[in-house]
Amino acid sequence: MRTSLKIGFSFGLTSGVITTLGLMVGLHAGTHSKSVVLGGLLTIAVADAMSDALGIHVAEESKNHGNTNEIWESTLATFVAKFVIAATFAVPVLFVPLDLAVTASLIWGLSLLAVLSYALARAQRVPPWKVIGEHVVIGLCVVAITHYLGGWVRTTFG
After folding, report:
1. 33: how many CB neighbours lie within 10 A of its CB?
2. Does pTM top 0.85 for this prediction?
3. What is the pLDDT of residue 86?
4. Tell me: the pLDDT tens digits for 66-75?
């Protein structure tokens, strides 16, 4: 796979999982509302995917040595990966009760992160458990913090 596509795909997937899980868990803890969580997921799928794609675009341009086609490949790969990954989290919200949807999304998201981390570790020839552990722990930290933050918002302002 071309480096520009790897950059966009790996960034989009990682950001899609972490950001979407954080938002989903925080909104669930704060509102327990299916429509609020679904609205947040769809917003993340569009707005944050575009924001991340532009961020990758500008970061790649700032290197002053990439060719224009590769920069646009990274940009589009980031958008598509982030959009698709974020959108997948809406599926369980649409079809099962919200508590179960959040649990299923946690399993789905952390599994995606683990699979990507495994592939990265193999490509870098480093022990997969270290890379998987590091990335999954960061994901779990985001989930825990946003859960408690959502609960705090609900208690303080609800």
Report:
1. 13
2. yes
3. 96
4. 789 999 999 9
The amino acid present at 43, given as its one-letter code, is T
- How many domains does the chain contain in total? 1
pLDDT above 80 for 1: no
Which alpha helices (DSSP H) does the chain contain, by range? 3-31, 34-43, 49-62, 68-88, 90-95, 98-124, 128-157
| Nearest to 8, CA basis, from 60, 88, 109, 76 | 76
Q: What is the pLDDT of residues 57-114, one digit of tens each?
A: 999 999 887 789 999 999 999 999 999 999 999 999 999 999 999 999 999 999 999 9
Tokens coding 124? 């870098």
Say if CB 146 and CB 26 are below 8 A apart: yes
Give the range of the structural domain holding residue 23, as residue numbers without chain letter.
3-157
Residue 39 in tokens: 């609205």
